[in-house]
Structure formats: structure tokens, C-alpha cells
Write a structure and sequence with these properties.
It contains 6 helices and no strands. It is an all-alpha fold and about 170 residues long. It has one domain. This is DUF1440 domain-containing protein.
Length: about 170
């Protein structure tokens, strides 16, 4: 197998990151339903219950800060759900592109690289979001919460790496 071009690695990574994000969301939705959640998948996925910034999760808050910092304009509450989805999916897809560049430079990308990649994405969140005031420091979370979050990111990393490896074989 020959190595892919940088552009090919990025494109495959973007696709793989989208598949990884969907896989992670499928797990999170399954947990939500098991916990008694009532919304259908699309309502849940597209944050239909998020109506204000006070209700918005961390991805929305990151996106809001980026937008307001860049454009020096306030985003209205009505944009919280949309910004949540753009930021969540954008982060997953762009991390996939970064994975694609790294894995595409190796002689043979392997699905086994997925769990360490997912763990790295997970750890990055706990390194960046607490100083931004959006998460507590990692040591303030209980083991169950951290394990569930890590598990979801391992699914993301595994699905991203497996998808990239399959796409690379089609080269």
C-alpha cells in the first residue's frame, strides 16, 4: 500500500471524523434513552431542547465564545442549539482531519490507533475546558462520570480510525 497524499489524508480524515462523531453520538443517545430520555434521535441530536445559553452545553459555549470573540457581536439565545451542533460536529470532524494527516503519514493506518486517539481527544477537553471556565478540573469529577466520558471518546476514536483504515484500503 502506498501512502496517501496530504489532501487525500485530510479528506479521508474528515469523513472518518464524521463517522466517529456519529458513532459517539449513537452511544450517548443510547445512554440517554436508557436513562429515561424521551426525545427522538433527531430532536436529541439537534439539541431541540436547548433554547438559551444558560441551557447550552460546553460545545455551544465554546462556539459562542469563538463567534463573539471573532466578530465582536453577541449571539442571541435562539442560536444556542445551532451553535452547539456546529461546534460539536465541527470538533469531531476536524479532529478526524488531524487524525487523517497523522495516520496517513504512516505506512499502514490501523484501527488499533483509534483508542489512543480517542483518549487524547478526551484528555484535551479536560485540559482546555477547565481554564475556560466550562468544565471543572478533572480531579473534581467522579470516576463514573469520567469513565462514561472516556468510553464515549474511545468509541469516537475507534470508529474514526477504523473508518480511515477502510477508506485508505480503497486507495
Amino acid at each position: 500500500m502506498t501512502r496517501t497524499t496530504p489532501l487525500g489524508a485530510v479528506v479521508r480524515g474528515l469523513v472518518a471524523g464524521a463517522v466517529g462523531t456519529l458513532a459517539m453520538d449513537a452511544l450517548l443517545y443510547w445512554r440517554y434513552k436508557r436513562g429515561g430520555g424521551k426525545d427522538g434521535f433527531f430532536d436529541w441530536e439537534f439539541s431541540s431542547t436547548v433554547h438559551t445559553w444558560d441551557e447550552a452545553p460546553a460545545p455551544a459555549q465554546v462556539g459562542r465564545r469563538l463567534y463573539e470573540g471573532l466578530f465582536q457581536r453577541k449571539l442571541p439565545d435562539s442560536q444556542a442549539a445551532l451553535v452547539n451542533n456546529i461546534t460539536h460536529w465541527g470538533y469531531g470532524i476536524l479532529n478526524g482531519a488531524a487524525y487523517g494527516v497523522l495516520a496517513g503519514s504512516l505506512p499502514k493506518p490501523r484501527a488499533a490507533y483509534g483508542p489512543p486517539f480517542g483518549a487524547g481527544v478526551w484528555l484535551t477537553g479536560y485540559a482546555v475546558l477547565p481554564p475556560a471556565g466550562l468544565y471543572k478540573p478533572i480531579y473534581e469529577y467522579d470516576r463514573v462520570t469520567l469513565a462514561k466520558d472516556l468510553g464515549a471518546h474511545l468509541v469516537y476514536g475507534s470508529a474514526t480510525a477504523a473508518t480511515f483504515a477502510v477508506l485508505q484500503k480503497r486507495d
